[in-house]
Please model this.
Amino acid sequence: MPNLPTVYLETTIPSYLASRPSKDLVVAGEQLLTHEWWETRRSQFDLYVSELVIEEASAGDPERAQQRLALISNLKPLTIDDATMQLAQSLIGSGLIPAKAAADATHLAISSRCGIDFLLTWNCRHIANAQILKELSKVVEENGYSLPFVCTPIELMGGVQDD
Model:
């Protein structure tokens, strides 16, 4: 069996899968797209989370936390080491990600350090932000790694289909 493309699931993905349907139409649409991706596409990828995703998924409402953790329980966890934290600090030091968003820098760093193909997220402020991704990629490359393709579930729905 050929190697599957790798996907790092940032915490917004299990959060959207386990949350109650939102009354905000945009968020509700994102939740539906996340469920569709999970049901139809996840089997076509090798899925990963990190210790940070597990920690973030554990927080908040205990019932929802239990659901989030159940969703990711069989996924491969990536370990955050000193080199990952150094890369995260480089991302923050670049001024592209504020210190208050250190967790976001860590998600980018761990997926870059581990050679992940795609980082899947709904965090469009500090992660899937088209205005900063090109510069973030330069910082990651200066540190000897490659930034994964950062996208939302709608962008990872699949290739061109024949009619």
In short: The beta strands are 6-9, 46-50, 76-78, 118-120, 149-151.
